[in-house]
Design goal:
Layout: E1 2-7, H1 26-31, H2 38-49, E2 58-62, E3 77-81, E4 88-91, E5 94-97, H3 101-111, E6 117-122, H4 124-134, E7 140-144, H5 158-169, E8 174-183, H6 185-189, E9 195-205, H7 222-235, E10 239-243, H8 247-255, E11 266-271, E12 274-279, H9 284-289, E13 296-300, E14 307-309, H10 318-321, E15 329-332, E16 343-344, H11 349-355, E17 357-362, E18 368-373
Parallel strand pairs: 1-2, 1-6, 2-3, 6-7, 10-13, 13-15, 14-16, 15-17
Antiparallel strand pairs: 4-5, 8-9, 10-11, 11-12, 17-18
Helix pairs in contact: 2-5, 3-4, 7-8
Length: about 375
């Protein structure tokens, strides 16, 4: 089987530094201390794949950071498409490959003639570029390395992408159509959620290994959310809180009287039912500064994706979560969001295992539900 692999080298750099994406803001991401992560996550995919005896794959990939460097240290057969001789640009003393979405599109168009499936390491923008370039001629599968990843073509983790590919090789994965979605990143950074659907891509599907697609909040659940948050507000103890993203937690921010973000993480000090905003739209480094205050985290589940950590809130990194007791994580969600297990993926196996098992989720003003975390 021939497999295409395209890596977006800047994907995901904006996550920990609260940029909610990386397209067009690489300089700002580096200024905030961001580092490339896409190649490392692509290596996690290949490492998992290398454990299977039936890994009869031949890869076609892009040059250098576009895929070639991910294969270093592995024994996979691969061919490199050197579609152009790109250089590097110096960004604040950091060397970044001078690549763009055009490289993804060109590689996808070249690969589709030769491969059985195209995998890409990136986020929703990369998914959109691959899909629009190949016109659904071959199935695609995303190795999640971006920030948002609201499309339904992503494996739940790089390791799960390897398992899906093996299932595809063995004829054990159903080929289905899954939504390609992307957000206006500039609007997203200004707390506006403007999703756009670009179509439905062919994708190998294995239940529990592939994520869902982002779903809008249900209108008929708004009263339920309001009641849950009012009850939670009344029970808040004094202390420092890391308040996550989403409209559910935003309602709590409003009740505390702070101008918190809708789509970011805010650090708040609560005293006698009133909130003081300590850091708005916090980065990972901001959260780490307040770890010694014994903070509590309040988060919700992303509808459709069923992710608690790992999609759109990478500020809650492995370094942050390993320092916070599991009992200090408060989860609020309507019952419809916890009908299936909820997911976590930090890229750190030890931290993910710490969070897995069962966690309490506040699903009504008076009730909690024990929900499986995978």
């Amino acid at each position: 089987m021939k497999v295409g692999l395209i890596v977006n080298p800047i994907a995901g750099m904006g996550g920990k530094v609260a940029l909610k994406g990386t397209d067009g803001v690489v300089e700002e991401a580096i200024r905030r201390g961001a580092k490339p992560i896409a190649l490392d996550l692509a290596k996690l995919f290949l490492n998992e794949l290398s454990h299977y005896e039936e890994n009869d794959f031949e890869f076609i990939t892009g040059a250098r950071e576009l895929g070639e460097y991910a294969f270093e240290g592995f024994n996979f057969k691969y061919e490199v498409l050197r579609h152009r001789d790109f250089g590097y640009k110096d960004v604040l003393g950091f060397k970044i490959p001078d690549t763009s979405s055009d490289d993804t599109k060109i590689l996808a168009k070249l690969m589709v003639r030769e491969v059985d499936i195209i995998l890409f390491a990136g986020g929703d923008g990369t998914a959109r570029d691959v899909y629009l370039s190949i016109d659904n001629k071959k199935p695609i599968l995303g190795i999640p390395t971006g920030v948002k990843m609201f499309s339904g073509v992503f494996a739940a983790s790089p390791e799960n992408a390897a398992k899906i590919l093996v299932a595809f090789l063995n004829g054990q994965a159903q080929i289905v159509e899954r939504e390609i979605m992307d957000l206006d990143e500039d609007a997203f950074r200004h707390d506006e959620l403007k999703p756009k659907r670009y179509g439905r891509a062919l994708t190998p599907y294995v239940e529990l290994l592939i994520q869902g697609a982002k779903e809008p909040s249900k209108t008929d659940e708004r009263e339920d959310v309001e009641a849950i948050i009012e009850a939670l507000y009344e029970e808040l103890e004094d202390g420092v809180y890391f308040l996550g993203a989403g409209s559910t937690v935003k309602r709590l921010k409003d009740m505390l009287g702070i101008s918190g973000t809708l789509l970011g993480v805010d650090i708040v000090k609560v005293k006698d039912g009133k909130g003081k905003l300590l850091v708005k739209d916090a980065q990972e480094k901001d959260l780490l500064r307040f770890i010694d205050k014994n903070p509590k985290i309040i988060v919700t589940v992303i509808g459709g994706l069923n992710f608690l950590f790992g999609r759109g809130n990478q500020q809650f990194s492995a370094d942050v979560l390993r320092r916070i007791p599991k009992e200090n994580i408060i989860i609020v969600a309507t019952p419809s969001k916890v009908q299936k297990p909820i997911r976590v993926y930090t890229g750190d196996r030890e931290v993910d295992e710490m969070l897995r098992g069962y966690m309490r989720v506040r699903v009504s003003p008076w009730a909690e539900k024990m929900v499986k975390v995978i």
